[in-house]
Design a protein that fits this description.
The protein has 2 domains: 193 residues, 2-enoyl-CoA Hydratase, Chain A, domain 1, CATH 3.90.226.10; 55 residues. By secondary structure, the protein is α/β, with parallel strands linked by helices. Helix content is 52%, strand content 17%. Helix 7 crosses helix 8. The longest helix is centred in the last third of the chain and has 17 residues. The strands form 2 sheets. The protein has a 6-stranded mixed beta sheet with strand order 1-2-3-5-7-10, sandwiched between helices. Strands 4-6-8-9 form a 4-stranded mixed beta sheet.
């Protein structure tokens, strides 16, 4: 159900249930949790790409066939091991979502947990929580309005309608849109660029952005000042000169 490939500091995690539109069964959710916790603790991995198998779905969300047997209450009675969004958020490595098809409801929430979203022209998004009769528990009701604006978020969540890749790009939900053939090369290129930054700095900066974003602006500014003051006090002149030369060299290559 989950394929993991590792190469040169980058891990590719593929949700592999294309026959079920990559829907997240309880077993798959727990496997995602285990995988991202393992990647968090793997110092050889500095960036991750998350995608779905096939071209139909990134993931269609929770497995409704399974919930039809267990009951909708099973979706709410989850343990931390059933919450892959939490594992992604706590991973510490930058995670790029390569959205190859539909991202629906819980699958939409999974995408929103990632740090960068790249979509193929076949990507589509929908929040069908209200139509299924459940409420989101992985952050969609709060994150979506902060990303695309409260009026657009209400339109999506109170209709359950899909938006296509171009609309998602126009609304600021996607970083970019590429053809299906270009999706994984684009995601891997970005992941490899991120992987050239030292892991400690990647994790520090990612959490600085995320933790500050969760605060009112003034508190976020104070958080940045406190953390940057402590961090920068440890940087020596030799460190600055070494990284300055590396930045100059990289700039000449681009």
């Amino acid at each position: 159900m989950l394929l993991i490939e590792k190469d040169d500091g980058v891990a590719v995690v593929t949700i592999n249930r294309p026959e079920a539109m990559n829907a997240m069964s309880r077993e798959l959710r727990r496997e995602l949790d285990r995988t991202f916790k393992a990647l968090r603790d793997d110092d050889e991995i500095r960036a991750v790409v998350l995608t779905g198998a096939g071209e139909r779905a990134f993931t269609a969300g929770l497995d409704l066939k399974e919930l039809g047997v267990e009951g909708i209450g099973a979706a709410n009675a989850t343990t931390p091991d059933d919450n892959p969004v939490l594992a992604i958020q706590q991973c510490g490595k930058p995670i790029i979502a390569a959205i190859n098809g539909v991202a629906i409801t819980g699958g939409f929430e999974l995408a929103l947990a990632c740090d960068v979203l790249i979509g193929s022209t076949k990507a589509r998004f929908a929040d069908t929580h209200a139509r299924v009769g459940i409420t989101p528990g992985w952050g969609l009701s709060q994150k979506l309005s902060r990303i695309i604006g409260i009026y657009r978020a209400k339109e999506m969540s109170l209709t359950g309608n899909f938006i296509d890749a171009q609309t998602a790009l126009d609304w600021g939900l996607l970083n970019r849109v590429v053809t299906p053939d270009e999706l994984m090369p684009a995601a891997l290129k970005l992941a490899r660029e991120m992987a050239t930054i030292p892991l400690t700095m990647l994790k520090f900066y990612k959490f600085l952005i995320d933790d500050g974003y969760a605060l009112p602006f003034g508190e976020g500014m104070a958080l940045e000042h406190a953390r940057s003051s402590a961090h920068n006090a440890r940087i020596t002149p030799a460190d600055v000169e070494r990284t300055r030369q590396e930045v100059i060299a990289r700039g000449r290559k681009q």
